[in-house]
């Protein structure tokens, strides 16, 4: 069985690594000749919308999936006419546009922060007057890891803020005084089997995820499962999905969803009975899903922009290093480490040491 993946970055790499024990083979399509998954299968180098390469991918793959949500929805539709594609193209259409996404949440009864459409400076001024300060101006498309966003405060020059997003269609989103950011990762198979991972509690810095901690038995688990289940059913979803949420006054507000495996679920590699990457493959191949139960206490720490010495990570009891094969660059995710421990005291100590290694990279 051969799996086609649009994209050959670190998520595709981890999908492939999870698939090898299942006897799966892989073919990737990615514009970069040295993309970090290229060593793990056949690599088609070219643009995602190259019809010749897409035809080759469809011919060689039994099932096609993708590692990031900015794959053009038209590409998924093109492939879907020639082979099986999961998650469904509709998930891309909804997830690629923040206005469509927020509206979709509201239609499903999933609460979100207040928002307004912004297509001009005048729209921005009207939206600020309605939503108040502070607020976040976000491009409707192509924003991730804090890109395409401007924080709007009372002293912000709105004309400059609009210029900063280069005049793209946007939404203005009211800033919510959240207690914490969490995400829920779920898997749904072709046959409709659904399993949920424990909530991840997430720490961001500069718009980039730094730490994700597994929160087994979280009091908001059931609410998060309810919200993501509505998405899964409505989208007729197949594969792994991540829904990012804010906790406000003891309840959850939806921020956005990712129709793919997700950075906040990397702790599952060592910290769950079955990792998100293997369950994504099981789901799209309609195999029985594996248990999502946590194994002890687990977390993930991202290494951004640079790498600590591998020996320094491995010297920490309970830590596991995951290198992506990417060259260091400011703001770039180049690796992560997970920690898993049965002892709460040991877990906290290990996580603290890993976090300090990551912080040292920021300060170097």
Summarize the biggest pleated sheet: 9 strands, antiparallel
Compute the separation of the termini in Å. Answer: 45 Å
Please tally the helical runs, counting DSSP H or I stretches of 4 or more residues: 12
CATH architecture classification name of the largest domain: 2-Layer Sandwich
CATH H-level superfamily of the largest domain? ATP-grasp fold, B domain
What does this structure look like?
With 364 residues, the protein is α+β, with helices and mostly antiparallel strands. The protein folds into three domains: 2-85, 3-Layer(aba) Sandwich (Rossmann fold), CATH 3.40.50.20; 114-174, Dna Ligase, domain 1; 180-363, ATP-grasp fold, B domain (D-amino Acid Aminotransferase, Chain A, domain 1, 2-Layer Sandwich), CATH 3.30.470. Helix content is 32%, strand content 29%. It contains twelve helices and 18 strands. It has helices at 10-19, 51-60, 73-80, 89-95, 98-107, 121-131, 158-164, 221-235, 268-271, 276-284, 310-314, 344-363, and strands at residues 2-6, 25-30, 42-45, 63-66, 84-85, 115-118, 135-139, 149-152, 170-174, 180-188, 194-196, 199-205, 208-215, 239-248, 251-258, 297-304, 319-323, 333-341. The strands form three sheets. Strands 10, 11, 12, 13, 14, 15, 16, 17 and 18 form a nine-stranded antiparallel beta sheet that branches. The chain has a five-stranded parallel beta sheet with strand order 3-2-1-4-5, with helices on both faces. A four-stranded antiparallel beta sheet has the order 6-9-7-8, with helices on both faces. The protein is globular, with a radius of gyration of 20 Å. The chain starts with a strand and ends with a helix. The mean pLDDT is 94.
């Amino acid at each position: 069985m051969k799996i086609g993946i649009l994209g050959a970055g670190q998520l595709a790499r981890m999908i492939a690594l999870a698939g090898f024990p299942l006897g799966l083979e892989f073919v990737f399509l990615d514009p970069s000749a040295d993309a970090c998954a290229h060593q793990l299968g056949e690599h088609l180098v070219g643009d995602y919308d190259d019809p010749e390469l897409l035809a080759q991918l469809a011919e060689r793959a039994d099932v096609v999936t993708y590692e990031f949500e900015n794959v053009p929805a038209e590409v998924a539709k093109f492939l879907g006419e020639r082979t099986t594609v999961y998650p469904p193209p509709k998930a891309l259409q909804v997830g690629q546009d923040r206005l469509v996404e927020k509206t979709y949440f509201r239609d499903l009864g999933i609460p979100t922060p207040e928002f307004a459409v912004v297509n001009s400076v005048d729209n921005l001024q009207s939206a600020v007057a309605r939503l108040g300060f502070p607020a976040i101006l976000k491009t409707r498309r192509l924003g991730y890891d804090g890109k395409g966003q401007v924080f709007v405060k009372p002293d912000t020059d709105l004309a400059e803020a609009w210029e900063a997003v280069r005049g793209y269609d946007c939404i203005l989103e009211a800033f919510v005084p959240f207690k914490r950011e969490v995400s829920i990762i779920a898997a749904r198979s072709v046959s409709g089997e659904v399993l949920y991972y424990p909530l991840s509690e997430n720490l961001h810095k500069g718009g980039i995820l730094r730490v994700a901690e597994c929160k087994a038995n979280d009091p908001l688990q059931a609410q998060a499962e309810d919200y993501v289940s509505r998405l899964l059913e409505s989208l007729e979803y197949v594969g792994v999905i991540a829904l990012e949420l804010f906790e406000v006054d003891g309840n959850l507000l939806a921020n956005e969803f990712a129709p793919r495996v997700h950075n906040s679920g990397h702790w599952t590699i060592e910290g769950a009975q079955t990792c998100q990457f293997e369950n994504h493959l099981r789901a799209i191949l309609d195999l029985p899903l594996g248990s999502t139960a946590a194994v002890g206490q687990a977390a993930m720490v991202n290494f951004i922009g640079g790498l600590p010495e591998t020996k320094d990570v491995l010297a920490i009891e309970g830590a596991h290093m995951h290198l992506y094969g990417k060259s260091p660059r400011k703001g770039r995710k180049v690796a992560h480490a997970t920690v898993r421990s049965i002892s709460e005291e040991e877990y906290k100590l290990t996580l603290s040491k890993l976090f300090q290694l990551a912080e040292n990279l920021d300060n170097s």
